[in-house]
Design goal:
The chain has eight helices and 14 strands. The chain is an alpha/beta fold and 262 residues long. Strands 5-4-3-2-1-14 form a six-stranded mixed sheet. Strands 6-7-8-9-12-13 form a six-stranded mixed sheet, with helices on one face. A two-stranded antiparallel ribbon has the order 10-11. The chain starts with a strand and ends with a helix.
Length: 262
């Protein structure tokens, strides 16, 4: 499976400009024969704390409709971020579409970023999502989720690849890079971390999008403002490594759970 990491400066609360830049990246990804393109968190708005303005109804979402049209036009799967608003409550989502525009996975960010006030405006989800595309089993996550290893362990029981779409500020970028590698190594999975670049409401973003192998090898690392890189990966690479080094067989999850509950 060929995955395109689309490191994007989508500006801030400017959907028209973001769509233009996303379309350009999808054209490039198609030219490189990518099966899937992964965009940053809140892809068309940036990390906005105005969900009442920029949130959308899931059943009639402008953002979903746009990416569905692009998936069909460029014959490519897409991972993107969108805000959904229902009954006055907002959720920060990562969605996965196949090449026909069908929704394969719809994940609501479990951990709103309370330190950055996200938890004041968004509620957290409570489900891990799974889907399969081109033989690759994938679970999508969002930004701050990266700091919580438990959900990645659960997802890795089914998935061999996890995507993390983010608006992760430059001031904490060292944590981003280290945690992406840690999640890959400890779950023996591919981790695709796609971060935004540019500036967003006073914050600077360096991007540093990365694709990490199940052994912790950095297969891609993007540093330019609007950058695209395509990497080919296969499920069997994770499966073979898990068989060779059966780390998961030594986990004592019932013991861990008793400590957490105690």
């Amino acid at each position: 499976m060929k995955i395109a990491l689309a490191q994007l400066d989508m500006d801030f609360e400017n959907k028209a400009l973001a769509k233009k830049r996303c379309t350009q990246m999808m054209e490039k990804a198609k030219a490189k024969c990518a099966d899937l393109i992964v965009f940053p968190e809140m892809t068309l708005t940036g990390f906005t704390m105005q969900p009442q303005i920029y949130g959308e109804q899931k059943q009639n979402s402008e953002t979903v409709a746009y990416f569905q049209e692009m998936a069909k036009r460029y014959d490519i799967g897409i991972v993107f971020g969108v805000i959904f608003l229902e009954n006055g409550k907002a959720e920060n989502h990562s969605m996965v579409l196949d090449k026909t525009g069908e929704v394969l996975a719809d994940y609501a960010k479990i951990h709103p970023f309370s330190y950055g006030a996200e938890a004041k405006y968004y509620v957290g989800g409570n489900q891990i999502a799974y889907c399969t595309m081109a033989g690759m089993t994938i679970s999508p996550f969002v930004c701050y989720d990266l700091r919580f290893p438990e959900i990645f362990q659960v997802a890795s029981k089914k998935s061999h690849c996890m995507t993390v779409i983010a608006n992760w500020p430059k001031q904490r970028i060292a944590h981003w890079k280290i945690l992406l590698q840690a999640r890959a190594i400890e779950t023996q999975s591919f981790i695709v971390g796609v971060n935004r670049s540019g500036k967003d409401d006073g914050l600077a973003y360096s991007g540093d999008s990365m694709l990490i192998s199940p052994t912790g090898e950095i297969l891609a690392h993007l540093t330019e403002q609007n950058a695209l890189q395509v990497v080919e990966i296969e499920n069997k690479q994770a499966e073979q490594y898990r068989e060779t080094f059966p780390l998961k067989a030594d986990r004592k999850e019932q013991l861990y759970a008793s400590w957490l509950q105690g």
